[in-house]
């Protein structure tokens, strides 16, 4: 037996062991592209959020599948699932359960720093990942953005000021989210969306999403009036006794009181 034969024998054994331990690639229900849904305007990206650094516990004992199905039934444009364990008490299991149950796009809401997280999100059924411009170097942002694109994921690029908006536009991001929450001070103001809408390339095919701090559906309507085609809402939906009605009122399917 030559050395090459020996190496190849060992390699076959190694790979057999690896294949046996490798998780099967799960098939999830097909989901449309969020960008296509939001081009029609007035979408609600509805979030599953058990807790947060700014508010502490919000609703720890939520049944994520039941909540996700309520969102979908009311016409949510997408479902966002917080998967960070330490600060938001979410999990990748939450994401998987929701992605198995619904047919709308699913956002893995986490703080992405590496390719492996993006792969894990995709394997758990996410169709969208989040990249926060303020949390990444320019090199990381570009690299992770291109990597997610290569996996056929949609990418929500989150910005908080004019410089970050320029970076998102230069990348060619189709989903640009203005976070109304200052992640350093936790101060929330819809004025962020008002200011940055002025920098957004309307008509380019990209869509503007206003994120965070929607206390009631009047806030969502204001964000739409400012040019947002979608709003991302977490706490208000998690605390609402009737999140489906909240979504229908925000999208105009039901009259607001
Ligand atoms: O929500 C927080 O306290 C928070 C703190 C630090 C980083 C991120 C944070 N939130 C993540 C989000 O993006 C929000 O969950 C999302 O925009 C919904 O916000 P809201 O409707 O205000 O719950």
Automatic annotation (TrEMBL):
Keywords on record: Amino-acid biosynthesis, Aromatic amino acid biosynthesis, Decarboxylase, Lyase, Tryptophan biosynthesis
GO biological process per UniProt: L-tryptophan biosynthetic process
EC numbers on record: 4.1.1.48
Coiled-coil ranges from the UniProt annotation: none
GO MF terms held by the record: indole-3-glycerol-phosphate synthase activity; phosphoribosylanthranilate isomerase activity
Catalytic activity, as annotated: 1-(2-carboxyphenylamino)-1-deoxy-D-ribulose 5-phosphate + H(+) = (1S,2R)-1-C-(indol-3-yl)glycerol 3-phosphate + CO2 + H2O
Pathway: Amino-acid biosynthesis; L-tryptophan biosynthesis; L-tryptophan from chorismate: step 4/5
Membrane-crossing residue ranges in chain numbering: none
Gene3D superfamilies in UniProt: Aldolase class I
InterPro entries assigned to the protein according to its UniProt record, in alphabetical order: Aldolase_TIM, Indole-3-glycerol_P_synth, Indole-3-glycerol_P_synth_dom, Indole-3-GlycerolPSynthase_CS, RibuloseP-bd_barrel
Entry superkingdom: Bacteria
Domain Indole-3-glycerol phosphate synthase positions: 4-248
Family that this chain belongs to: Belongs to the TrpC family.
PANTHER family xrefs: INDOLE-3-GLYCEROL-PHOSPHATE SYNTHASE, TRYPTOPHAN BIOSYNTHESIS PROTEIN
Listed name of the protein: Indole-3-glycerol phosphate synthase
Species annotation: Planococcus maritimus
Lineage: Bacteria, Bacillati, Bacillota, Bacilli, Bacillales
Originating gene: trpC
